[in-house]
Design brief:
Length: about 400
């Protein structure tokens, strides 16, 4: 770690036939009958390796983030893999993302020649990595929550040799639910709100610090709102299927999805996070802005990635199914994107006996301006990999 390796970016493409009856990708990709995935291999020029660290997020591309580049700086081989939904989660189906990740792992082993493949689940990639590894160890899923066939049992998913869960939340469904604005009464009109739960309004009768009783009712209202949207999505999809017409899917807007009592009350689930700030900025602005979790989605996508009850990709549920793989879990204690309760929940749920846990005090989600804390993370990744026999 004392010297910085010279490395290059090598563009990669993985392409395979699309067998699903219903496709959510558009343009050439949606009409060609194939799934086309793009990625980058960050490969040190003079440091051959039999081990590769694979990053995948359900919707983001990660090759410009500090951690992948820091691993490459350390002389490690890093594959930043995109799913079929790069930078657009509007119609994303988590079961299909798991298939995409499996194709990247096959490519790393069979085409690039790596003998050891380590999944690095950063941020939203954490629950994806747990979902993938659980299904690779013991595949059970044959259909999405909408009832569409996406057969992971027959997909030939092969487990990674190890999993790193870093700066990661429980799942998209569970995190969204904890950030849903429970004051919304009418999904078609976000101006119709319950003032009791409208915590960003100066007229709200409850102000920080919040009482335990209020927080419990606030959380229950968030879950209720998620379930209300889920039921509407199920009912609408069933009606479209009943009609049997050309309309097979429907897009919709989910208003106000960045509202959490934690951001303005540091006594709730305390850690080193800044007060009044989310990972996308002022949560009061993000809550009503055009860019937010699940802001634009579809019936099928809501059920697969955002439904609190129906999503197959929930973190603790899948952590409990991982029984053989080594897992390194790293919690950034000032993470403005990952609530303080999430990492302990994953830690408690992991069934594998081969698990390690590291908390890095004051570390933020992206390690911006924190090179010494990023180094702590990378050093632990390298040390763990060597002790596990995954890195020579």
């Amino acid at each position: 770690m004392n010297t910085r390796a010279e490395w290059q970016r090598i563009p990669l493409i993985v392409s395979f036939p699309e067998t699903a009856k219903y496709t959510e990708t558009y343009g050439f990709a949606g009409n060609s009958g194939r799934v086309n995935l793009e990625g980058q291999l960050l490969k040190p020029a003079d440091a051959p390796s039999k081990t590769v660290y694979v990053f995948m997020h359900p919707t983001s591309t990660l090759q410009l983030l500090p951690m992948p580049m820091a691993l490459a700086d350390a002389g490690l081989h890093v594959l930043c893999a995109a799913s079929r939904y790069p930078k657009n989660d509007t119609a994303l189906i988590m079961e299909k993302v798991a298939i995409d990740l499996g194709k990247w792992l096959d490519h790393a082993r069979n085409e690039l020649g790596y003998e050891k493949v380590i999944l690095v689940g950063w941020s939203g990639g954490g629950s994806l990595s747990l979902f993938y590894q659980a299904q690779a160890e013991n595949p059970t899923i044959t259909h999405t929550p909408a009832g569409d066939e996406v057969n992971l049992v027959e997909a030939g998913l092969k487990p990674a040799d190890g999993v790193i869960f870093i700066a990661a939340h429980l799942s998209r469904a569970e995190t969204l639910t904890e950030w849903l604005d429970p004051s919304v009464i009418d999904e078609m009109n976000p101006d119709v709100r319950n003032p009791e739960f409208d915590i960003y309004s100066p007229d709200c009768p409850h102000q920080s610090p919040y009482t335990k009783e209020f927080v419990e009712r606030f959380r229950a209202a968030q879950v209720a709102r998620n379930r209300k949207i889920t039921q509407w999505a199920l009912d609408t999809l069933a009606e479209l299927k009943r009609r049997g017409g050309p309309e097979q899917e429907r897009a919709f807007v989910v208003h106000r999805t960045m509202c959490d009592v934690r951001w303005f009350d540091p006594t709730i689930d305390p850690n080193d996070r800044p007060v009044g700030k989310s990972y996308m900025g002022d949560p009061r602005t993000v809550n009503v802005g055009p860019v937010g979790l699940a802001r634009f989605t579809t019936l099928r996508s809501w059920l697969s990635q955002w439904s609190y009850d129906l999503s197959n990709a929930k973190g603790p549920m899948n952590a409990a199914l991982i029984k053989r793989s080594p897992v390194l879990q790293i919690e950034n204690n000032a993470d403005e994107a990952v609530p303080a309760t999430h990492n302990p929940a994953i830690r408690a749920a992991l069934a594998t006996p081969n698990k390690e846990y590291l908390t890095i005090p004051h570390a933020t989600h992206y390690y911006l301006g924190q090179p010494e804390l990023l180094k702590t993370c990378i050093d632990r990744v390298v040390d763990w990999s060597k002790r596990q026999g995954l890195l020579a």
